[in-house]
Write a structure and sequence with these properties.
It is built from seven helices and eight strands; from the N terminus they run E-E-H-H-E-H-H-H-E-H-E-E-E-E-H. It has 225 residues and is an alpha+beta fold. Helix 4 packs antiparallel against helix 5. Pfam families: BTB_2 (PF02214).
């Protein structure tokens, strides 16, 4: 028997929808799609496409961040991009992309980081490393600090005033007693040689000034007294 009522017969179930592309991925959202695994010379690095995309013209961005990558690279069995470069110098490259600072440990040479920065085509980092290398070369070319020496002869009563009034960068180095050569009244006045020095640039008008031989001899004599 047909059931009474005014209801309509149930409609046929709709076919399941095909999965669509979904909403665009947010930079801070989750999901494995935003993470990138790199195999650099046998060492694995994990980072995000957002980090690698901070230098749009770089090798890494063109390899990993574009929908239709300009560059092609093989992947290993884990799905990591294979990059045949030295992993030792990749750390400073990746850290620069992460926080924008150049950090090079004592074990690494700036020239090695520069080589990798040029390979990955990170122009801002190339400029930064070159500036660091130039600064180091300038400091090295200056060489050790040189000094100019003066030997001052004074009496015992003048010694305190002379030392206390030294200026213009002069510093006390050594005091050498040369005996009592003068006699005033009934008292002998001891005499001293006071060696003072001042830092000197490598050259003054292109002429390098070395400590005088007299100053060196007096220093040697004083060290034996």
């Amino acid at each position: 028997p047909t059931p009474r009522g005014h209801g309509r017969p149930p409609a046929a179930a709709a076919p399941p929808l095909e999965p669509g592309p979904g909403p665009p991925e947010r930079a801070g959202g989750g999901g494995a799609a935003r993470w990138v695994r790199l195999n650099v010379g046998g060492t694995y690095f994990v980072t995000t496409r957002q980090t690698l995309g901070r230098e749009p013209k770089s090798f890494l961005c063109r390899l990993c961040c574009q929908e239709d990558p300009e560059l092609d690279s093989d992947k290993d069995e884990t799905g990591a991009y294979l990059i045949d470069r030295d992993p030792t110098y990749f750390g400073p490259i990746l850290n620069y992309l992460r926080h924008g600072k150049l950090i090079i440990t004592k074990e690494l040479a700036e020239e090695g980081v520069l080589e990798e920065a040029e390979f990955y085509n990170i122009a801002s980092l190339v400029r930064l490393v070159k500036e660091r290398i130039r600064d180091n070369e300038n400091r090295t070319s200056q060489g050790p600090v040189k000094h100019v020496y003066r030997v001052l002869q004074c009496q015992e009563e003048e010694l305190t005033q002379m030392v206390s009034t030294m200026s213009d960068g002069w510093k006390f180095e050594q005091l050498i007693s040369i005996g009592s050569s003068y006699n005033y009244g009934n008292e002998d006045q001891a005499e001293f040689l006071c060696v003072v020095s001042r830092e000197l640039n490598n050259s003054t008008n292109g002429i390098v000034i070395e400590p005088s031989e007299k100053a060196k001899i007096l220093q040697e004599r004083g060290s034996r007294m």
